[in-house]
What does this fold into?
Amino acid sequence: MSFNIEASSKLKDDTLAQFVASQVSDELSRVPGLGGTGKLADNLRKNGITSTFQLIGAFLELRAPDMSSAENCNLFAEWLGSKGVVGGSRNYVVRSIAEKCASLMPGIFDISDFPEFSKG
It folds into this structure.
Protein backbone atom coordinates (compact mmCIF):
# COMPACT_ATOMS: atom_id res chain seq x y z
CA MET A 1 0.00 0.00 0.00
CA SER A 2 2.65 2.52 -0.93
CA PHE A 3 1.98 6.03 -2.12
CA ASN A 4 1.57 6.40 -5.87
CA ILE A 5 2.50 9.93 -6.81
CA GLU A 6 1.50 9.38 -10.43
CA ALA A 7 -2.04 8.46 -9.30
CA SER A 8 -2.12 11.56 -7.08
CA SER A 9 -1.49 13.70 -10.15
CA LYS A 10 -5.11 13.02 -11.18
CA LEU A 11 -6.10 15.34 -8.34
CA LYS A 12 -7.15 18.60 -9.96
CA ASP A 13 -4.50 21.28 -9.61
CA ASP A 14 -7.05 23.88 -8.51
CA THR A 15 -8.47 21.54 -5.86
CA LEU A 16 -5.02 20.88 -4.43
CA ALA A 17 -3.98 24.55 -4.65
CA GLN A 18 -7.16 25.68 -2.92
CA PHE A 19 -6.67 23.18 -0.08
CA VAL A 20 -3.01 24.13 0.36
CA ALA A 21 -3.77 27.87 0.35
CA SER A 22 -6.71 27.69 2.73
CA GLN A 23 -6.66 27.70 6.51
CA VAL A 24 -6.57 24.30 8.16
CA SER A 25 -10.10 23.22 8.96
CA ASP A 26 -11.34 20.84 11.61
CA GLU A 27 -13.58 19.16 9.02
CA LEU A 28 -11.95 16.06 7.53
CA SER A 29 -14.22 16.09 4.48
CA ARG A 30 -12.42 19.23 3.24
CA VAL A 31 -9.26 17.20 2.65
CA PRO A 32 -9.14 16.22 -1.04
CA GLY A 33 -9.87 12.52 -1.25
CA LEU A 34 -11.97 12.43 1.92
CA GLY A 35 -14.98 14.41 0.71
CA GLY A 36 -17.88 13.08 -1.30
CA THR A 37 -19.94 10.59 0.65
CA GLY A 38 -17.74 11.01 3.70
CA LYS A 39 -17.24 7.25 4.14
CA LEU A 40 -13.46 7.54 4.22
CA ALA A 41 -13.62 10.43 6.69
CA ASP A 42 -15.98 8.31 8.79
CA ASN A 43 -13.40 5.51 8.76
CA LEU A 44 -10.83 7.91 10.20
CA ARG A 45 -13.28 9.15 12.83
CA LYS A 46 -13.93 5.55 13.91
CA ASN A 47 -10.17 5.28 14.44
CA GLY A 48 -9.94 8.41 16.59
CA ILE A 49 -8.92 10.91 13.90
CA THR A 50 -11.63 13.56 14.05
CA SER A 51 -9.97 16.63 12.53
CA THR A 52 -7.59 17.71 9.81
CA PHE A 53 -5.22 18.86 12.55
CA GLN A 54 -4.99 15.27 13.84
CA LEU A 55 -4.48 13.97 10.30
CA ILE A 56 -1.59 16.39 9.80
CA GLY A 57 -0.25 15.29 13.17
CA ALA A 58 -0.30 11.66 12.07
CA PHE A 59 1.69 12.55 8.94
CA LEU A 60 4.25 14.43 11.03
CA GLU A 61 4.42 11.74 13.72
CA LEU A 62 5.50 9.19 11.11
CA ARG A 63 8.39 11.41 10.00
CA ALA A 64 11.78 10.33 11.29
CA PRO A 65 15.08 12.21 11.12
CA ASP A 66 16.75 11.94 7.71
CA MET A 67 13.61 10.37 6.19
CA SER A 68 12.90 11.20 2.57
CA SER A 69 9.57 12.59 1.47
CA ALA A 70 8.94 9.36 -0.43
CA GLU A 71 9.48 7.26 2.71
CA ASN A 72 7.26 9.54 4.78
CA CYS A 73 4.49 9.44 2.18
CA ASN A 74 4.72 5.65 1.87
CA LEU A 75 4.41 5.22 5.63
CA PHE A 76 1.48 7.64 5.73
CA ALA A 77 -0.23 5.76 2.88
CA GLU A 78 0.17 2.49 4.79
CA TRP A 79 -1.14 4.12 7.96
CA LEU A 80 -4.16 5.52 6.11
CA GLY A 81 -4.86 2.09 4.64
CA SER A 82 -4.85 0.60 8.12
CA LYS A 83 -7.50 3.18 9.08
CA GLY A 84 -9.80 2.36 6.15
CA VAL A 85 -8.70 5.02 3.68
CA VAL A 86 -8.19 2.89 0.61
CA GLY A 87 -8.14 3.06 -3.16
CA GLY A 88 -7.09 6.02 -5.24
CA SER A 89 -8.44 8.44 -2.67
CA ARG A 90 -5.63 7.45 -0.33
CA ASN A 91 -3.10 8.89 -2.81
CA TYR A 92 -5.04 12.16 -2.94
CA VAL A 93 -5.06 12.40 0.85
CA VAL A 94 -1.33 11.71 1.11
CA ARG A 95 -0.47 14.30 -1.54
CA SER A 96 -2.84 16.89 -0.07
CA ILE A 97 -1.54 16.53 3.48
CA ALA A 98 2.10 16.45 2.34
CA GLU A 99 1.65 19.60 0.24
CA LYS A 100 -0.24 21.32 3.09
CA CYS A 101 2.56 20.50 5.51
CA ALA A 102 5.11 21.83 2.99
CA SER A 103 3.22 25.12 2.85
CA LEU A 104 3.41 25.37 6.63
CA MET A 105 6.91 23.90 7.04
CA PRO A 106 9.00 24.33 3.89
CA GLY A 107 11.23 21.37 3.18
CA ILE A 108 9.09 18.69 4.78
CA PHE A 109 7.82 17.50 1.38
CA ASP A 110 10.01 17.56 -1.70
CA ILE A 111 8.51 16.49 -5.02
CA SER A 112 12.03 15.79 -6.33
CA ASP A 113 12.14 12.75 -4.02
CA PHE A 114 9.84 11.15 -6.60
CA PRO A 115 11.97 10.84 -9.77
CA GLU A 116 9.22 8.81 -11.46
CA PHE A 117 6.91 11.81 -11.30
CA SER A 118 6.97 14.20 -14.20
CA LYS A 119 4.25 16.80 -14.13
CA GLY A 120 2.98 17.81 -17.52
Notes: The chain has one domain: 5-108. The mean pLDDT is 89.
